[in-house]
Amino acid sequence: MSMRGIRGAITVDANEAAPILEATIELLGAIVEENGTRPEDICSVFITVTPDLDATFPASAIRRMAGWELVPLMCSVEIPVKGGLERCIRLMVHVNTEATQAEIRHVYLGEAVKLRPDLSSAR
After folding, report:
1. Which of 2, 45, 65, 123 has the most CB atoms less than 10 A away?
2. Rounded (5°) CA angle 89-60-56
């Protein structure tokens, strides 16, 4: 078994707690579904948000999900690159898996599809 990183990103329409929390759950749910993982397979989740999202901690949504209480979570602010995608939440899910690197399914939703169209089109 290997540890792999699964990337994902999603955008929200507003810097408000509810949309941020809902988008975080939607993105994590899609990553888990696409890759057939379970919380007990997850080593950790690293979460970043763009500087314009400061209404809440996205990790608080994951902590409320059944089975995710013991998964280590870390939030940070994305590097503020000029012209970068706004109102974006990114996840890096570290998972123990038998899947090869080529079999990992990264997930990009909403406007975040622009970040990696090469990976988004594979969905």
Report:
1. 45
2. 60
Whole-number Å distance between alpha carbons of 36 and 34: 6
User: Distance between CA atoms of 76 and 49, rounded to whole angstroms?
Assistant: 7
Averaged over successive runs of 10 residues, the pLDDT of the chain (123 residues) comes to 95 98 97 95 97 97 93 96 95 97 95 84 47
Beta pairing partners, 49: 77, 89
Q: What's the residue count for the chain?
A: 123
Residue 97 identity: T
- Residues marked active site are found at 7, 63, 75, 78, 90, 108, 116
- Enter the pTM of the model: 0.93
Q: What domains are defined for the chain?
A: 2-120 (3.30.1330.40)
